[in-house]
Specification:
This protein has 201 residues and is mainly α. Helix content is 53%, strand content 12%. It has a two-stranded antiparallel ribbon. A two-stranded antiparallel ribbon has the order 3-4.
Amino acid sequence: MAWGQELQALEDALRSLNAQYDAFLYGSSPKPPVEIRRKVGAQIRRLSTSEPDNSAERYRFSTLQGRYNALCERWDRLQAEKEAGKRPGVYGHFTRISGAGLERPPSRPNAPPASSVERDGGKPAASAESSAERDLFERFRKAKLEHGEDVRGLDFEKFVQRLALERAKLAQHFGVQEIEFDIAERDGRVRLVARPKETTT
C-alpha cells in the first residue's frame, strides 16, 4: 500500500478509535477498545520504521503520530476518572439547568463582568472583562487541544465577537441582563455553554 493510502487508513482508524473511546467513556459501550488501540499503535510503529514518499507525507505522519499520543493521554486520563467514579471529561462536572436548556457549572463562573460594572473610583472594568474573555478563550483552546480537536481556526477577536452576539441574544431570550459562559464536553466535543448569571440580593 502506498504511503498516501497508509496515512489515510491511519487517519480513518484514529477517528474511529476516538469515537469508540468516547462511546466507552460516556456510557454507550461497556468496554474500552483496547484491541483496536493496540492495532493502531502497531500501525504507527510500522510506519515509523519506513521512509515516506515525500516531505508532505512525512509531515502528515508526524501530525497523526502526535495526535495519537495526545489522544492516548486523554483516553487514559478520562478512563482513570471513570474508574474513580467521576464523570470523565476536562469539564465533565456540568449539570443541566431545569427548563433553561443550558449548562450550569457548579462554581467559578467565567463570564466577564458587564461593561456597566464600575471599579476603582467609577471607571468601567474593561480590563477585567478583557482578561476574563482571554482566560475563557485560552481554556477553550486548551480543552480542544487535549481533546484532539483542530484549533487552527480559533481566533481571539472572532471569539470575543461571538460571545458578545450570543450574550445579547440569550439575555433577550431569557429576559436577564447578564449571561455567563463556560466550557463543557458534550457528545465527544468541547463546546461553549451559557447560563443566566445569578444575582445576589
